[in-house]
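Progress narrative, work stream C.
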Amino acid sequence: MAESEQVSEDIIIEAREVRYSYEEGGQPSLDGVSLKIERGKKVAFMGANGSGKSTFFLCCNGIYRPDSGTVLVAGQPIDYSRKGLMAVRRSVGLVFQDPDNQLFSASVYQEISFGPMNLGIPEDEVRREIERVMDYLEITPFRERPAHALSGGQKKQVTIADVLVMHPDVIILDEPASALDAKHTKLMNQIVDKLAKEGITILMATHDIDYALEWADEIVLMHEGKVLLQADPVTVCESREALAMTNQEEPAVLKLFRRLVERGVLEEGLRPPVSFGQLERYIAEGR
């Protein structure tokens, strides 16, 4: 197989000069976005509110159709016919920032069953899959409860179940910890880690740069509808000028690490740590 063909197979989502405006002739929300996402990667999208993160996600799922440019999923441009959109939404699942924008069925079970039943999958198969997903996400006790009566964290779990039951290749999470308390934020992070270990490509919008540094394989910084920087987390988090442009601060662990090196507590040349646990190991080892 030619090298270019192999690279193409490894790219699950690609954007080519994607532009989108909410109003004709208005300020573009996406202004020539081009990027590639490799299969199986964990990618954090960061940027100030209004930088284009959510709009880009909606284009990846086919909810928005770019004014110009192309979004490709698994090497194929999105087909905006009804059949084509059903296919892309099976492959690319989107979990909205506000779960109330996604949940509409009378009960949790009906909510999760809507997608596969709409595809004409046999009822017995749908039932088995729903039971598996509810057990996986630990929401079986809520099965008969009205979705609108759940807590914010429980609603987020149900919206993820909506997506997982479709067996997607990609899951997009738009600020999954938004408005959650500490308990449900931890639970949400655990669910995301389980999904990543199964090889699902995960795109996540987050404002938590400390979490992104430790969690992500790549960070995409967006600014005014453009990709400002896409690189490994350490490279992005050490790019102070780019961080400042996107209203981000340098992660606390990198600030402390730099000071310890400057004061001679740690030796120069160490790879910057991505977590306080890693920094503590450096100190304990006397490096």
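Work stream C, second folded protein:
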Amino acid sequence: MTIDLHAHSTASDGTTPPEVLPRLAAEAGLTVLALTDHDTFAGLSAASAAAAEVEIVPGVEISCRLDDAEVHLLGLFVDPLFAPLADELELIRTDRVRRGARMVERCRELGAPITLAQVEAIAAGAPLGRPHIAAALAAVGITDAFTPNWIADGGRADVPKHVLSTVDAIALVRAAGGVAVLAHPRSVKRRAAVSDAQLAALAEAGLAGVEVDHPEQPVPVRDRLREVAADLGLLATGSSDFHGDRKPVHLGECTTSPEVLAALRAHRS
């Protein structure tokens, strides 16, 4: 088995339609792929219907707040029809529209000649997100979108959003019959790494695993995370975090062992 537990489609901020992902996964040699679009299950039925050689794990990547920073939580094997989780995701998504519109306004106030209509066209029906605003900025020659100058967390054009606490998100994932895995906690793109103490607190709250092998986490970081995960009894997963053409990574670039996948299945509520 070759397993990738973190991938995105055009249902959120990926560039690959969900019905195409299973074929690309099979071509990459994968046997299991988790579709984990941001705060939505919208692509799941299309991906599942198109799956033949590849098992599609139902998943979602939830934007959360951990202390004073944003983190992302993967909910794997969740029931997409579980109403409390679906309702919370709907609230997060609708707030994205408000936030996105205000961020575009701030960008315009800072001199960027972009419009909400342009950003919505880039999103093409997907939940509005910062990557879509960044693409609009890049189209007018502004290539440093994800910096404090523009739309990085706390940047001049950033706008706070509705967000769950990570502990609450873990509880929702578990109530939906799934398992919670913390995504890329020490990515080089994060302003601050999730600390050992924070990981310990999340493990106490029911976190099942931590994404160790990830393209944005250098090997020494992965080695340390693997040690911490083992000490805390957390499962160590690996994933590509595939976004299609939006990121220079390919499906299966990092993978999860069959043993860890089996243990994740066993963790389900």
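The domain at 3-88+163-267 is CATH 3.20.20.140 (TIM Barrel). No further action is required on this item.
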